[in-house]
Design brief:
The structure is a single chain. This protein is an alpha+beta fold and 263 residues long. It folds into 2 domains: 126 residues, no CATH class; 95 residues, no CATH class. Helix content is 31%, strand content 18%. It contains 9 helices and 11 strands. The strands form 3 sheets. It has a 7-stranded antiparallel β-sheet. The radius of gyration is 19 Å and the shape is globular. The relative contact order is 0.21.
Length: 263
């Protein structure tokens, strides 16, 4: 019997997702990071995404190491975009927009196409797999509706708010927060924290959130626009019934790269 906590394997990078978690959980949900709009009069439509493709000149200014490397045809993205909404503003004014609505409005075929469009937009795919046509459909729609894109590899404020509600719903108040490299784990008591204070505790590289009794786990990885929720089927049924997260349950064949096999 494996112990993913002791072995520091809280994300299933390889193989089927349910198989990875089978010694701990019988139900796993792929939760999609929501898009969002802000309740304000004006939106900076040039900054609907955290990631920004740099020109060659901008990249040289921001990254000294590039000056020492031979010239190459490479895409460099920056996340130093202070015009993207701050977490506090998203908390106060953010309205979650589901992937279902983005798919419908942008005329994409489904979740898999939307995931590919998002990953294309941040340069996360090999050039042979990029789909600029899908990205263009997505961008045209989100710009027309002033919809902000989620940021990959982080739970994001709206997801953290939903996670807080999920822990409360299941009566789990002692929560463990572990960073990407398993170097630090903090314990927080939700009875002593407001919803915003809990969200503010979680940093951009905190990839693993779980109850102290380990009965529910939220886990993400650095290049994804979704995260996983792992628990038992009774708790999962309760979460799904309360509609806190958009997504779908893993079947016995679902892998991390589900977007390439989703029917």
């Amino acid at each position: 019997m494996s112990n993913i906590f002791e072995e520091e394997k809280l994300y299933p990078y390889e193989g089927t997702i349910k198989k990875h978690f089978e010694d701990h959980y019988d139900s796993v949900f792929i939760a999609l990071l929501p898009f969002f709009q802000l309740d304000r009069k004006e939106t900076d439509k040039a900054n609907l995404k955290k990631a920004r493709l740099l020109s060659h000149e901008e990249a040289l200014k921001e990254i000294d190491l590039l000056k020492k490397l031979p010239e190459a045809n490479r895409d460099i993205y920056s996340y130093d975009n202070d015009r993207y909404p701050a977490d506090e503003e998203i908390f106060r004014k953010g309205k979650s927009i589901r992937w279902h609505n983005i798919v419908k409005g942008s005329d994409l075929a489904g979740y898999a196409d939307l995931n590919t469009a998002l990953r294309t937009s941040i340069g996360a795919l090999n050039r042979n797999f990029t789909r600029p046509d899908l990205m263009e459909k997505l961008n045209n729609y989100t710009e027309s509706e002033s919809i902000y894109h989620p940021t990959e590899g982080a739970f994001g404020m709206l997801s953290m708010m939903a996670i807080y509600k999920a822990f409360k719903l299941l009566g789990r108040n002692e929560i463990m927060i572990t960073d990407e490299f398993y170097e630090q784990t903090a314990t927080v008591d939700l009875d002593r924290l407001t919803e915003y204070e809990f969200c503010d505790q979680i940093g951009g590289k905190d990839y693993y959130l779980y109850s102290a009794d380990k009965e529910i786990l939220f886990t993400i990885e650095w290049d994804s626009f979704f995260f996983l929720i792992a628990t038992d089927h009774k708790k999962m049924d309760k979460l799904i019934a309360n509609d806190l997260f958009e997504g779908f349950l893993c079947n016995d064949k679902t892998e991390h790269s589900w977007a390439y096999t989703l029917e």
